[in-house]
Write a structure and sequence with these properties.
It is a single chain. This protein is mainly β. Helix content is 0%, strand content 43%. It is globular.
């Protein structure tokens, strides 16, 4: 399957989100995208965010909430207190940890939910009240980005894979 990349012009987007960057520890091998960090690509005539890793410690795909955030820069603060949920259409070969990150907070434990594996594209509605487990309670008035994290490989495939086809935040436009 071909994986042409956007050329930095941000001509590709998923529901208005133009930045989908990969990250990983130095021992994790990034398989998709084949080069660079831009996870946006075309598959079957649709724009998707796609990341595949041979995970050692972690691999992730992230998107800032604010469209005014620049790639490789600190994601800007957003107030989502008027929003109740996100809707996502994805497929993954194993469980993915979806973190909602507070502004300027890096490392450590973040409020999160678990996205179950799905062999076919599946749509899920996830309420913000479901995001738990952070060092502090989630403050929707001060959030910056979503991270989709893998901490292990699928035992059968030998890698972790995630494809996102749609991502919408209730009552918010990037």
């Amino acid at each position: 399957m071909a994986h042409p990349q956007s050329t930095g012009s941000h001509s590709l987007s998923i529901n208005g989100y133009t930045i989908w960057l990969t990250g990983r520890d130095s021992a994790t091998v990034q398989l998709i995208p084949r080069s660079g960090k831009n996870g946006l690509t075309m598959q079957g005539g649709n724009t998707v965010a796609h990341a595949r890793f041979r995970v050692n410690s972690y691999g992730e795909l992230s998107t800032p909430i604010s469209a005014s955030s620049a790639p490789n820069a600190e994601a800007h603060r957003v107030d989502l207190s008027g929003s109740r949920f996100i809707k996502i259409k994805y497929k993954a070969n194993q469980t993915v940890i979806l973190q909602l990150r507070q502004t300027g907070v890096h490392g450590g434990t973040h409020n999160h939910v678990l996205l179950p594996p799905s062999e076919e594209f599946t749509s899920s509605t996830i309420y913000f009240s479901s995001f738990k487990g952070g060092l502090q309670p989630l403050d929707l008035k001060d959030v910056a980005k979503f991270n989709f994290a893998f901490l292990a490989n699928n035992a059968k495939d030998g890698f972790a894979d995630l494809i996102i086809q749609s991502f919408v935040i209730d009552r918010y436009r990037p």
